[in-house]
Amino acid sequence: MTHSPHAFLRSDRTSVGQWWWTMDRWLLGTVVILIALGVLLSFGTSPAAAERLHYSDAFHFAIRQTVFGIGAVAILIGVSMLSARNIRRAAFFVYVAMIILMAALPFIGHEAKGATRWIHLAGFTLQPSEFMKPALIILVAWMFAEGQKGEGVPGVFIAFCLYLLAVGLLLIQPDVGQTVLITVAFGAAFWMAGVPMSWIMVLGGMAFAGLCSTYFLFDHVHQRVDNFLSPDKADKHQISQASEAIWAGGLFGRGPGEGVMKRGVPDMHTDFAYSVLAEEYGLIFSLALIALFAFLVVRGLYKSLRLSDPFEQVAAAGLFVLVGQQALINVAVNLNMIPTKGMTLPFISYGGSSMLAMGLTLGMALGLTRRRPGAYTPSEGLARAGAFA
Predict the structure, then answer these.
(1) pLDDT tens digits, residue range 2-37?
(2) Where are the domains of the chain?
(3) Beta bridge partners of 99
(4) What is the C-alpha separation between 32 and 348, in angstroms, rounded?
(5) Residue 320 · residue 227 · CB < 8 Å
(6) Cα 266–chain centre separation
(7) Which of 84, 99, 153, 348 has the fewest CB atoms within 10 Å, i.e. the most exposed one?
């Protein structure tokens, strides 16, 4: 018997073969590159972080990030093999489990920096909200699609209940940043579902009013906004070090592992990993990283908006918006363009929950955008059902 030199033949009918030939390999390759970059960067940031936090192993964080990266790839591939129906089912169980854990956080959660967002499980710190986000987007897209069918299912009402429950539990922690993140993604899904612009305007106004109210309700939001608006009166050591790191990198950087600013800032391996990358690898490399995220989001949205199924359209697009928005917020904070927010750069920042949850998010997105019979419409653009008119 002769064997083809190709890994998979187009005639391969195994589940792996069908997955490979129906997958958008440009998107898959981009995600794998981002995961690899996150692991690579961790070897540069780990020694300084380990020394500051008194770990004997200089590569403690790098080893863990490598394990998380492998786990993210496994989740990415496994979830992307699922059918759209099974992705909905998985999202339901993930959402329920994470909501239960979020409700339990005030009682069993771990507090850090004035917030209770994490649970310690067998040496691993789990942040339930990271996994809740993609599951919520899938479920609300499902409910919007069911509501459009006109079969008596109160899809919009259920979607809002799912969203408000998640927001309420996030604000208890409190986590205003994640609230903003899922609100924008929810709004994008709501818009893509074909609602009238008047609804979008009203809901946008309510969301803006809610965001403004956090300035008066939460002291840390009040302080961060004031610090951003009055930098001359604020202690901005962390963001100043991040800005200096970006400028110090120049075009080509100091070299891998040669950054110096990371030794004086606690969060350089997590929220400010982009600054470390800019210092060590330079402006050109950091812009290339932004281009990778832009390509991922733009191509993902292009594929999403050509899907023929309303649920798959809205769900996939909402997931890509979620990833792109999180990357945009992190980079904007590093560049001192918006007030500081503890939000990771997808796949690049150190963190098990973030890495694994991003694997889940894009696994769902890639699974929904796979080529299936009748999956794509001949024309581009989102079909508007107009059921809410």
Answers:
(1) 444 455 666 666 778 788 888 999 999 999 999 999
(2) 17-368
(3) none
(4) 11
(5) no
(6) 22
(7) 153
Question: E strand or H helix at 12, and its extent?
Answer: none
Which tens digits make up the pLDDT trace of 95-128?
A: 999 999 999 999 888 777 667 888 887 777 889 9
Contact 175, 129 (CB under 8 A): yes
Name residue 278's amino acid: A
Q: Report how far residue 315's alpha carbon sits from residue 146's, in angstroms, rounded to the nearest whole number.
A: 13
Average pLDDT over residues 341-370: 92
Dist CA 171 CA 194 (whole Å)? 29
Reading the block at residue 332, the tokens are: 């904007």
The tens digit of pLDDT for each residue in 45-55 reads 888 888 888 88
DSSP 121: E
CB-side neighbour CA atoms (13 Å) of 388? 21
Query: What is the three-class DSSP state of 19?
Result: helix
Residue 309: helix, strand or coil by DSSP? coil
Give the number of other Cβ atoms within 10 Å of residue 359's Cβ.
28
User: How open is the CA angle 152-157-159, to the nearest 5 degrees?
Assistant: 110
pTM: 0.88
Nearest-angstrom CA–CA distance, 33 and 289? 10
Answer yes or no: are the C-beta atoms of 364 and 79 closer than 8 Å.
yes
Helix, strand, or coil (residue 268): coil
